[in-house]
Amino acid sequence: MNSWAQREVGRSKMAMPQNNLHQVYLDSANTYKQSDIEKSIDYITNSIAVLGKRADKKSLAESLVALGEVYRYHNQYDLAITNYEDALEAYKSTRTTLLLAEAYILNKQFSEAEKELQPLLKIEGLKPSQKVSLNENLGDAYRGLGLVEKAVAFYEEGLVVARKNQITPKLADLNSKIADTYAQDDKLVEAGAYYNSSLQLTEGLEPKRAVQEKEKVADFYNQKSQYGAEIELRKKSLNELKTLPKGRTTKREARGDFDSITSQRINYKIANAYIAQDKYDEAIPYLKESIEEAGSENDLVVQKDATRKLSEVFVYKGDYPKAFESYRNYVSLVDTLYVRKEQEISRAARFNREISSKQNRISGLEQERELSQSKYDLALTEQELIQENNKRQKWIIYSLIFGMILLGLAAFFFYRSNQQQKLANNLLALKSLRSQMNPHFIFNALNSVNNYIAKSDERSANRFLSEFSTLMRSVLENSEEDFIPLAKELDLLELYVKLEHSRFPAKFDYELNVDKSIDVSTFEIPPMLLQPYIENAIWHGLRYKEEKGFLKIDVKPKGTTSIEITITDDGIGRKKSAELKTQNQKKQKSKGMGNIKKRIAILNDMYKNKVDVTISDLTVDGSGTKVLFVLHKD
Prior knowledge:
By secondary structure, this protein is an alpha+beta fold.
């Protein structure tokens, strides 16, 4: 929070009642919604905190709706849905229901949107704008479900209400959506008619909306191979776009992806239309303009595509030196784009962690408020009992007995609440620990793919990337589970070791043995529990060994209700490995093993000592490492 905002909020706290201060925080959150999501969420958190432990449900719902809108603006639709649902649980309103339905549609959960919207059709007295939104959202839901006739019917009903109440912007939007629906159903004649109507209607609206509609219609002309009409319309868009002042995109424009409509993209599409007609000389200036503008706007994706297309055009014209030069520029742009994508992935991961932390804080405030409400109700009951005892002294013994019963019930419910809170905390901690897969392997795997690409070994790169994506998909699918079948875990383990072995084939061989007498279908194991220990064996034991090492994984029975999983390596051993590590590496290992220990402790607490782990040296001289897991049945 900047110093100005701190001063203003500080003055507000001293001068304003609680409800007014709550609104100040919401206004501040809305101010930073587009530019700083973290600051916006902090203001919303403060708006909930200032309401106190017995928050007014309507005010609480306003804060949750504001939080949902922040997440929706930044395309975090799952979090938006969660907060809209919590807002409806606190205080039901038509506006919140419409917002929830829109979030479902954006998240492609069309059936859920339809279920939320259908009851609103029975409500009388809706505002005209709400009626239009209701019909528009139902049209969107049915279009997503592939029910074209129903979608068009609701869009038409929305048009009737919009015309009657002179809601002009919606006339263009609904005509455009009807055209989209017909185009989706390959009814191109009907789609063309509605697109013409939407074009005429947008001429009276804001210029950015008009450009947006022109580009949509131009895409339709491209679909029909009407390249002349497409080029003419895109040139108009290009001229209009150049006259628009550059500035912050409005909420309405952001929802319509207006930021994706840029002069470099339009130039690129015009060039493609000329190429489709074999008019290469006309296409070249537009491709060059697209490349230049994309370079100045740092739009690597368009710059890359336009450069590749320019190389192809020179090939068609037989100008091979220019084609080669353009292709070399294209390869350089691909490399630059690859590096940027890696950076974006890293930033996205950090962003998601920070947002998750802030959302957890808000959830904690809500839980604290609910607990406080229960305590307040209990205290109120006790107060009423005391007053009743003062009035009726002759019933004092019965009142005391009744009070003792109430206290006993209160203690019981308090104990049960603590147990449920402990379970919830365990589940939350377990979910957090499950999600902290070591990024070291992910980044090194991506580097391996990059090395294969650099060596032009496309087959190895494709194979490695396919197996890596299979592993990551399985890890994500299992991330919500406390336990998975042992057979599935062994398959994932073997795939992981195979990937590491393909990266270090000269460093170690491996072997995975499962005793045939074990019925693996009867055992379950926490997902990705063994992987960190195997990763340590490879990275800190076998990788530093001068000669080729060996990694062995054995699964054997232990009695009738337990099995032993042994991971052994003949690497340099834990002592030598510790001596080789930097201070930073020691911290990372300590954190990783600490997470595993915490995870096992939580699971054993929840499931009564289901997993035991011991680590020891393989030989007397300290070389090699042995990790022994004992897994028990329920």
